[in-house]
Amino acid sequence: MKQHKIIAPAIITFIMVIYYVGIAFVCMLVPKIPFPIKLLLVVVPLALAGVLFAMFWERVEEIRSGEEDDLSKY
Q: Which of 15, 24, 54, 72 could lock 42 by a disulfide, CB 3.0 to 4.6 Å apart?
């Protein structure tokens, strides 16, 4: 039963990580952007993808521990 609750966050995380990695890849390919700006345009989306993956992992741990409703804490 818990596997069904992980599917939606996994799909959303996968789509968003592909989106952010795609943005970083496209920014690397644009030739007329100066290097410092290009570096910023690559690092920020990759950092966001990393944070998104960390949030997904935290959500999976919450589901596995039985804490399915985040609002119950407040």
A: 24
Query: What single-letter amino acid sits at 6?
Result: I
User: Given this model, what pLDDT does residue 57 score?
Assistant: 93
Q: Per the structure block, which two tokens stand in for 66?
A: 């039985």
Cα distance between residue 28 and residue 22, in whole Å: 10
The three-state secondary structure class of 65 is coil
Q: Residue 12's Cα: distance from chain center in Å?
A: 8
Averaged pLDDT in 10-residue chunks for the chain of 74 residues: 78 95 93 92 94 93 75 62
Which residues are CB-neighbours of 59 under 8 A, at least 6 positions away? 9
Cα distance between the two ends of the chain: 25
DSSP 11-36: HHHHHHHHHHHHHHHHHHH-TTS-HH
